[in-house]
User: Fold these one by one.
Assistant:
Number 1:
Amino acid sequence: MKTKTLASILFLMIIGINSFAQEKSYPESYGKTLNLGVGIGYYGYIGHSTPTLHLNYEFDLFRNFTLAPFVSIYTFQRTYIDKNGYRYNSRYTVIPVGAKGTYYFDELFNANSKWDFYAAGSLGFALVSNRADYGYYHDKNYYRSPSPVYLDLHIGAEYHINNRLGVFLDLSSGTSTIGLAIHH
């Protein structure tokens, strides 16, 4: 379902690009950008969505491609019932850390300078803190199964308000965010 939704959004973005197209000089520089986002994480192992904060800083790597170290944070609570019917709460705080590689399709789509369209992938690991109610001996490895590796696929767009500030929408397989892009 998520794959079909992401594919549909990408298709609609491609169709809509022609309405934004204008003459633009290439290659455009994409790096030196601080991205601050808030969003919703909908990881399959959580079972529900949870608010997420995200931060990354993009560096130009080569034409139309950036690399951005990132950090995100989200927290959620699970309630467990033991064999005697007692309810226990366990709070998880997860901090994914890694690098996001982004390819910009502006040149391919002939998008004007107000818009950026991209696809990306994030790779890293997740730092996990788990606190439970007193007396509950929970599975501390719940989140880590099968490994702490963090992998996320993205599509997104940014609208440039001016040369220094933009707003973005990043849709992904793990966390979708909206936010501000601050260009240096």
Note: The first strand starts at residue 33 and ends at 41.
Number 2:
Amino acid sequence: MIHLYYFFEKIISIKRRIRASLYFVMSGIYFKSIGVHSKIRGGKYFKVGKNVSIGDFCWIEAVINYGNQSFEPLLSIGSNVSFSDFVHISCVTSIVIGDGTLVGSKVYIGDHSHGSYKQKLTIQQLSIPPAKRPLGDFGAIKIGKNCWVGDNVVILAGTEIGEGCVIGANSVVRGIFPDYCIIAGIPAKIIKELKG
């Protein structure tokens, strides 16, 4: 009986992958592979290179509407990019990920916040649940070619990461970083230059 259950689970999983693949092929977008239970939304606003693979339980979205807000995002993913499991990408303005980049598990990349925190807020503003606050603090994100983003990394709005960078696991990244360096920490900073 248990074997039958796993057999039917496998068939359902294959059907979901085929359905997801057909949707993206019909939209002009093709992924090399899409893992199980992954959500990919707003494909009309994606630009995707060749051989892009997406792991299990990923949520990759170009956000078009949120509450009363409307957006025209651009989520650009280069060729030979690989996303591990549990990656969450949320784009309302612009996120560009360069060719050959490897993104580890449980990574968040987002070009906005739930609310705006650049100035002090009133008690009335703070009493609104974060999920109901208008999106704010927008800033484009650019990740260069051939980067390695370690597990559990958070990349925040307004960040630019140069080519060939390594981002250490568990880092929180905001700012502008040059090519070929190791970035790590909370907040992340350059800890080593790789180019001799």
Note: The first strand starts at residue 33 and ends at 34.
Number 3:
Amino acid sequence: MQEKMTGERMRDIVGFALIVRGIIVIFCLFWLSEAVQAEEVSIQFRGITLNANLEQAQDKSITDGVILITHGTLAHNGMEIVSTLQQLIKGKGWNTIAINLSLGIDNRHGMYDCAVPHTHKHEDAVAEIGAWLHWLKKKGVKKVILMGHSRGGNQIARFASEQDDPAIKGVILIAPQTWDEDGLSINYRQRYKKELQPILKKAGDLVDAGKGGTMLTHTDFLYCENASVTAEAFASYYAHDKKMDTPFLLPSIKKPVLVIAAGKDNIVPDLEKKISPKADGKKIQLVVVEMADHFFRDLSAEDLVDAITDFLKDKD
């Protein structure tokens, strides 16, 4: 009797081990499949390396079309909203490439280190977006959707307003940057307890004198306290420029545009108000995700992707 029970137990143990091994094999195959579909790619541009994360949907080739995603201020392509978007959109059957803007740094990864002197300019992104579009076209891609979040939304809108490339089939702007000169000064004062205008005048005077490369030390800049920043970089981000206001750019974009606003956005709270008069429901569409904050966290990410895939229906 004891031998019979031992034999049965051994069969149970072996059976359980086989099941576990099967689960492990399936998991490994799934992981390998996902790994194969995700790839860091890089290109050379003006003497530095630019990198991006390419995610291919199941059974899709890159030539089936790609959504090019640009991140926000001093951020990167691995931040939560971007990585979540890539995974959810891939599940909907679309390829994506999330680029890292160089911000003047070779082969940059991760958030910008505030201790590194700032030499980058807001408009640098336009040329880098163009470089990635060129790379995609060389790979045989004939259908590209441009997508940007926050400041990246403004940079995407700038590019699309200047470059009416036949490969671009649509533009998606997620909580894109708005801009107001008085509001900018107020925000700077609230954040740094000092006035913006004296610093901006100093930077502008240096640029006008041909000394834009002069480093302004101990200067509060964007999200970085006590930073070092060139005069031309400071002026680029803070000087009066209507193109910094994304709604201003929309009439110049010839391709269909989807603007997605967050109902609880405390970073660009005026977006819906500014876009509504321009949204005709055809060339310019506006969707408001009521419960979302600026980064569309948690369940709001699903609502965000639903809005995106609705916009993409006639662009497959």
Note: Residues 1-5, 22-36 have pLDDT under 50 and may be disordered.
